[in-house]
Write a structure and sequence with these properties.
With 278 residues, the protein is α/β, with parallel strands linked by helices. Helix content is 36%, strand content 23%. It has a single domain, classed as UDP-N-acetylmuramoyl-L-alanine:D-glutamate ligase (3-Layer(aba) Sandwich), CATH 3.40.1190. The longest helix is centred in the last third of the chain and has 17 residues. 47% of the residues are buried.
């Protein structure tokens, strides 16, 4: 009998975006660009477009559990990412199921607020995420507001971003990537700065790594970049990249996706689809 090579699979556990820009749809787009098969577990359904989230339907936790069982029963999941989980009950069931798969690399994106400002995580769910899910992570990817919530204090400048990455890694026992986005550049506060460089900071438990890319002026779309970055990170890890190389590759992917973004309606655009090596 011929031995067949098993290709790595990637899993997203997240919410949907009816506009196809963010959430599970963005994750599948990223997986496809990496040439990887993507499995999905829907944790929430949203009615949204780039202007905002109109409503959210949380998927019953028992059905989330069934989806996870169905995927892990058959597919060779090498890495996964989580996105919008929404409630304590959802976080609890996801955390319990993931404990049974310690070898799977886990990118946990602690999604709390949409780009539009819509709240995507209940207040009591923050503590559940900190206690149950983040300690299981291979890598967590909070943006600045999320890092402030997780740590309980403000982060005002580039030095504090680096300190926050170390504090997060120590607190939750995992590698931490703090996403500065367009909000921070070296030596500038994130409020009111004329920023030309987007810098993310990774602390792997031993070293700090900084990843900078120039800010693309007036892009057609940036909606879904956080989801796309986490998905690209999961894809990179599934392909065997080291954490630092995975972050560098994922940052390149998102930069190109923004650069290649295009219009799909009046004043409405989506990220482009850069091709990545597998």
């Amino acid at each position: 009998m011929t031995c067949r090579k098993i290709q790595p699979c990637v899993l997203t556990i997240a919410g949907s975006d009816s506009g196809g820009n963010a959430g599970v749809q963005a994750d599948l787009r990223a997986f496809h660009c990496y040439g990887l098969h993507g499995c999905t577990v829907f944790a929430a359904l949203t009615a949204q477009n780039p202007r905002g989230v109109k409503s959210v339907h949380v998927v019953p936790p028992a059905f989330i559990a069934d989806q996870l069982d169905a995927v892990f029963e058959m597919y060779g999941i090498k890495a996964l990412k989580t996105g919008m989980l929404g409630t304590v009950d959802v976080i609890d069931v996801v955390a319990r199921k993931l404990k049974a798969h310690p070898r799977v690399k886990k990118v946990i994106d602690p999604v709390m607020v949409a780009t539009s400002g819509a709240k995507l995580l209940a207040d009591d769910a923050v503590e559940a995420m900190k206690e149950l899910l983040l300690p299981q992570a291979t890598l967590i990817t909070p943006n600045l507001p999320e890092a402030e919530v997780l740590l309980g204090h403000p982060i005002e400048n580039a030095d504090e971003v680096r300190a926050a990455a170390k504090e997060l890694a120590k607190t939750f026992g995992c590698t931490a990537l703090v996403k500065g986005g367009h909000a921070v550049e070296a030596g500038a506060t994130r409020r009111g700065a004329d920023v030309k460089v987007a810098e993310d900071v990774l602390f792997d438990g031993r070293r700090l790594h900084a990843f900078s890319r120039p800010v693309i002026p007036h892009p057609v779309s940036t909606h879904g970049t956080g989801c796309s970055l986490a998905a690209a990170l999961a894809a990179e890890l599934a392909l065997g990249r080291s954490l630092a190389k995975a972050v560098d590759g994922a940052k390149n992917f998102v930069y190109e996706a923004i650069r290649l973004s295009y219009y799909t309606g009046k004043n409405c655009g989506v990220l482009g689809m850069p091709r990545r090596e597998t």
